[in-house]
Amino acid sequence: MSIMSYNGGAAIAMKGKNCVAIASDLRFGIQAQTVGMDFEKVFPMSDRLYLGLTGLATDVQTVVQKLAFQLKLYELRENRPISPKTFLSVVSNVLYEKRFGPYFIEPVIAGLDPKTSEPFIASCDLIGCPMEPEDFVVTGTCAVQMYGMCEALWQPDMEPDQLFECVSQALLNSVDRDAGSGWGAVVHIVEADKVTTRRLKARMD
Amino acid sequence: MATTVSCLEVPKGGFSFDNCARNARLEERGLTRPKFRKTGTTIVGLVFEDGVILGADTRATEDTIVADKNCSKIHYIAPNIYCCGAGTAADTEKTTEMISSNLQLHRYRTGRPNRVATANRMLKQYLYRYQGYVSAALVLGGVDCNGPHLYSIHPHGSTDKLPYVTMGSGSLAAMATFEAGYKANMKKADAMQLVRDAVAAGIFNDLGSGSNVDLCIIGKDMKVEYLRPFDVANKKGVRQGNYSYKPGTTAVLSKSIKQIKYDIVSESVQEDMDTS
C-alpha cells in the first residue's frame, strides 16, 4: 500500500469566469476501514484563498497549521492579505525544505487575487514543485479518474453555477470509482464578493 | 524537556531532516513512497554564430500520468544566462532559483554582468555536495563578455562545455538530430530550426516528453528572446459534444453563503464649495 493512500481522499480545484471552485471528499480512513465521514480536506487560508490537501492525514493537519502560522506572520508584517501566487511560493518552500524527508501531502490552491480578483489555481507535488495550469488541478487517491472527468467536463469561462455542476460531477463520479475516497463531498465556489459552500449528497460506500 | 521550540525562532535556511526517522519507520511497515514529479524531458542547447539557443519540451509527468501539459523548463538564471532543467522537477526549479538569487547578489558585489562559467561552477559545486541526491540535470547557456557558452551539468556534479548538448529521457532522439544537422557557426534561422527539430524528435519518439517546443535565444549583446511556445507541436482536439450539466443536477444537502467584506483602500469626502 502506498503512504499516500493510507488515509484516502481527493481534492479538485477549477478555474471559472471570475470565480474558482475547490472541492474535496469527506472520508477519513485507516487503510480499509472508514473512521470518519466529516474530514474536510479544504481549508480557508484567507477570505478568498483556499487550500486543499490530500495524502497522509497527520501531515495534512501539520502542514495546514504550519502554513496558517506563516500566513499570519506575513499578514502582520505586510499588513495586507497575501496574493495566491505568493502563497504558492510559501507552500512550495515549506514543502521543499523537507526535500529528503517529505510531508506526504499534495496541495491544491484556489483563490482570487485580493486586488484584481483574478482567478488563480495551482498545485504542488509532495516536495513543492509548483504547477499553474489554466484549467484544473486534481490530487488524491483517485487522481487518474479525476483527470479523465475534468478533461471531459471542463470548459473555459464557466459561470459560478455551471462551474459548481462541473466540479461536483467530476468529483462525485471520480470518487465513486475509488474505494479510498467518497462518503460525502464539500464544494466551495469563491467569487469576488462571496463564497458559497455546499455539501453534496453522495454515495456512502 | 528535550525539544522546546520557541515560536519566534527564525528557521535556518537549507534542508530540514526532521521527518526522516518517521518516514523510514513508515516504509518499514510496508508503505511505499510516492513518486516525485519528474520532467521526463528533452532539453537541448546549441551554440550558433551570434550566441546560444536553448530548447525544451513542455511535459511534466508523475509516474506515467501527464501532470502538466505546458510547464516551463527554461529557467531564468541571470539577464544573460538561462538554464533548462531535467530530472526531479522540484529540484530543478529550486536549484535554479537559488543560483539565480546568488548570482544577483554576485552582480551587486562585482558590478558586472555574470559569466556563464560562474553559474556553472556554483551549480556543479552545489550538486556535487549532495552527491546526486538533488536530481537535477541541466543545460546551462548564456552570453557574457567572452562570447557564447554552453554547459551540460549532470546530477552528480560533472559538467561538459560543448557546442551542442542534449539531456533528459529524450536526449538520444535529440542528439541524433543534432549529429545529423549540426555545423559550426550556423545562422540564427537555421539554428532555430535545428533546435526545434531536435526537441520535436524527443517529443514524438520519447514517452517522457511531449506537447510544445519552447525556445530561448540569447544573442549578441546579451539580448534574450524567450519564445514560449515556439512551436505548438501537439494541439488539443476539439470537443465534439456538449457535456455541461443543467443547474440543479447535483443533489445538495446544505448550502451556506459567506459574504466577503471589501477592504476600503481610500476614502475621500468632497465638501460643498462655498460660493459666497
Automatic annotation (TrEMBL), chain A:
Component of the proteasome complex. SUPFAM superfamilies: N-terminal nucleophile aminohydrolases (Ntn hydrolases). It comes from the Eukaryota. PANTHER family: METALLOPROTEASE TLDD, PROTEASOME SUBUNIT BETA TYPE-3. It comes from Clavelina lepadiformis. CDD domains: proteasome_beta_type_3. InterPro entries: Ntn_hydrolases_N, Proteasome_beta_3, Proteasome_bsu_CS, Proteasome_sua/b, Proteasome_suB-type. This is Proteasome subunit beta. Component of the proteasome, a multicatalytic proteinase complex which is characterized by its ability to cleave peptides with Arg, Phe, Tyr, Leu, and Glu adjacent to the leaving group at neutral or slightly basic pH. The proteasome has an ATP-dependent proteolytic activity. The lineage of its organism: Eukaryota, Metazoa, Chordata, Tunicata, Ascidiacea. Belongs to the peptidase T1B family. It is found in: Cytoplasm; Nucleus. Keywords: Cytoplasm, Nucleus, Proteasome. Coiled coil: none annotated.
